[in-house]
Amino acid sequence: MDDAYCETPAPRPVPGDADEGKGGPYAECVLCREPTEYPESTKGATLCPVCAWQEGGRTACSG
Q1: DSSP readout, 22-62?
Q2: End-to-end CA distance of the chain
Q3: Are the CB atoms for 26 and 17 separated by under 8 Å?
Q4: Considering the chain, what percentage of its residues have pLDDT values greater than 70?
Q5: Within 13 A of 25's CA, how many CA atoms are on the CB side?
Q6: 8 or 45: which carries more pLDDT confidence?
Q7: Which pTM was predicted?
Q8: Residue 57 CA: distances (Å) to CA of 35, 45, 51, 60, 63
Q9: Greatest alpha-carbon span in the chain
Q10: To the nearest whole number, what is the mean pLDDT of the chain?
Q11: Contact of 13 with 35, CB cutoff 8 Å
Q12: Gyration radius (Cα) of the chain, Å
């Protein structure tokens, strides 16, 4: 298994990026305050891809 894969950060969306097709502004991650891939109007706790990955690992290992 390639350990470098786990060290590569997930791409972060740029608010207002035309390539996303959603337009901005984006909701902030509730853990690190980086922009997420969700629009600001999304209800609930939003996580960026990096924090979502880490939270998934913590949840999987906690049981």
Answers
A1: S-SPEEEPTTT--EEEEETT--S----HHHHHHHHHHHHH-
A2: 24
A3: no
A4: 62
A5: 5
A6: 45
A7: 0.56
A8: 21, 17, 10, 5, 11
A9: 41
A10: 76
A11: yes
A12: 13
Our measurement of the distance from residue 36's CA atom to the centroid of its chain's CA atoms, rounded to an integer in Å, reads 5
CA distance linking residue 9 with residue 49, whole number of Å: 9
Q: Which has the higher per-residue pLDDT, 36 or 22? A: 36
Tokens coding 52: 């979502």
Residues in the chain: 63
Determine the average pLDDT of the residues in 12-28: 62
> Cα–Cα distance between 37 and 51 in angstroms, integer?
12
Which residue's structure tokens are 């999304």?
Answer: 42
Q: What ranges do the domains of the chain cover? A: 20-61
At position 57, the amino acid (one-letter code) is G
